[in-house]
Predict the 3D structure of the following.
Amino acid sequence: MSRNEILEQLKEILITADERGAALLDLVTEDARLQEDLGLSSVNLLYLIIAVEETFGIRFDDVGVNAFPTVGDVVTYIEGKLS
Amino acid sequence: MSKQPKAKLFSLRCLLMDFVRLTGALPGLVWLRPKRRYTSAQAKKRIRGAALVISNHTGFLDPVFTMLTLWYRRQYFVCHQAFTETKAGPFFRATGCLIPIDADNFGVGSFRAVTDNLNGGKVVTIFPEGHINGGQMLTFQSGMVLMAMQGHCPIVPLFIKPRRHWYSRLEVIVDAPVDVAALCGGKPAFAKIKEITQLLQDREAYLEQLAHHTTYTEEST
């Protein structure tokens, strides 16, 4: 799966991971910071992790939610796990 | 709701936990033992299998009160990691019934520890306010709903009514279990989870109201 495909799927997850829904899409870029720019809380991030695990069929290591400052970091992590 | 597997009853870990619980509970049985009140007949039913117990947080003894209210051998408590790093930390860790979480950087491992215990048929207690409240209930965090969803178990709301005097007996109101899986239905969006969190907060507010009235459909001491 390419990086772009992962990002697209991640965008779909992000829509459900926040109450703002599709309005969040305009803000999502690889450089966007999850907490500061997108305004996601730790519970939002936990939801994101659960949804990513179910969607991509991967299992996250014991990491804190702050381990992923940007959207790009999540994509890189998923990419690493899939390869 | 899926059936939960039963954990071992006579393992060394369980016996050690019983020892700590009994020695810790003896003064409680004499003085701390709370007066239990139930909102309905369903609330009075003994919990079978796993459950996530939520309660308002009025003081440091709340885990003891919930333990005395719901007398289960396999009961765990979610607490701040900082709490286990105090001087009394080794003692609390030795009880083997704490699941520490880092509130500033919530870890996937801590979340799994909770859901694994729930999936193992155990009772886990969490204080969704996150901190001890100063008499006014704080906003609940949504993490508990995610835990119950992943742990495939219901949420049991409790309300601890603070003592009016140091000598007065404490009261705990127990509500009927809330089936989170039925409310969520499949893979819910985060907005739905927030909705369920609000519902549970409303239940807790209802229990607070009940705590100031004396009549209940079912009552037990």
